[in-house]
């Protein structure tokens, strides 16, 4: 429904991307391609040739090993569907923790990415357990640009969840429609971090749909409870704030991520206790930004 | 019909003083960029000369604007203004003007007015003068990266140069709309720009860290007042009355630890601070389900003290964390062990319990990564801000 409506929009969103306002604390060089259709979901950042696939027999063997696990998952899904009693309402004041960083197994649910991986820079990052037993996202942001004549600004590291999946490796969504606030218990170092909630859809123009907001950390030895309502998240595509704003669709959350980026080189440390969701009935706002009607042919240009 | 610039280049070649312009047939390079040089060294020197314009002894805002003004004066026809603008943008950081709106305006002012405004819909659609529009967009991009919010004058200038449907104007609109929205989002606002002075920075940092407890007082000490201190430096100490009360209740057999240095970032500046930490307050073991369900021997916590001990405990304050109880936080000028010793001596004056409780220095901390600290400033003490 929403996706088909988007198809009808002008498909010039990704042309000459420097024109848009950058959502991150620092702007990145987004690909200034003059093409409308990009068949690669990675947007040119990784090509098929970069992946090392094992031999076909090995792949078949691995697949058969996973078959049992997938069937068990599928059984659970069928049971839930037949039971037909999903949770519809979240209780007031309760935080439903999605990711609790109290054991190393949770760390495997996040994928790390930095500009070094894309040959865009020299930043490094890692996700490990901190001395006090919580998750620690740490690293070094380096704003030195590689001298390839293409990159103008760089310096970012991010941690992101893997795409939500159903049985048999089918792409799925996280359904957060019961809640209206994101709650994070963190201990930062005074830096600001960018929170990204991706709403990647089926059609290619929605592949880079992300909703952003900034997590400001106090710094210091005291823990900080950050409650950010979803109405404050603004619509972004490939790092550029979009002209036509819309509220986040909480039924179709594909990934959640945190990006560390700054205009100055240096270390960063973000200690995370948990990331959770809450329903705050006192928060009535649906969307914090205006949804103005724009002049023709200006949007996305 | 030859384009005007090519024509002028060709014409110049036919007329006399074209030696200089010979290498510049395909794009207009102004005399400003080419110094008087020997003909044989012209080709090599062209690259070198373009950089040397910015090799001024005094690099500040005035000299930068002066350079721009000279370009405008010596070059009425604005030859090579795009190249000049790109070169100027590269050197902005050296001159320390990358956060100055007036400087960006002076760069936008270089563009000729009225010439590049599209006259029909094809010109408007196909980015009339693309190189210039891209250059103006790059100026705005640099402004955005440095957090400089443009004003209406920038819009007027850009409209006069490129017309109201041009891409730089559209980018300006987006910046003018979004940047003020995001400007003051931080719950802990910092001055723009953040002060350079380490003392002021440290004060801001401590205010930020201790904003959890509004009654915190930040005191300034000077180790000159202590006779036996090696480092003569300022010491900022933050402590609240609540922390003093907690300290009074602490037993004498458990030592306190001075841990540090930890880092806090204020915009792009880093401040090192230290924490005086006590052992964490242990949580009382929660009653098991059997104990809760057992109603044979119920005791009221209001009447029976033993029952009260078991089930009730006063609410934890914000300073009683799981990793430790924070008694005070400090930042010093030299961030050395000696300055920390002076800090403890000063604290002892206002906190009598510190006389009976031992204080130790710790190399590791449960609060996070510690930057190692030197004994004193004489031993190459660490600097405060990066």
From TrEMBL, chain B:
Residues in ECSIT C-terminal domain copies: 240-364
InterPro entries cross-referenced by the UniProt entry: ECIST_C (IPR029342), ECSIT (IPR010418), ECSIT_N (IPR046448)
Places the protein is found: Cytoplasm; Mitochondrion; Nucleus
Top-level taxon in the UniProt lineage: Eukaryota
The entry's keywords: Cytoplasm, Immunity, Innate immunity, Mitochondrion, Nucleus, Transit peptide
One GO cellular component term: mitochondrion
Gene Ontology biological process terms in this record: cell surface receptor protein serine/threonine kinase signaling pathway; innate immune response
Similarity annotation: Belongs to the ECSIT family.
Name of the protein described by the UniProt record: Evolutionarily conserved signaling intermediate in Toll pathway, mitochondrial
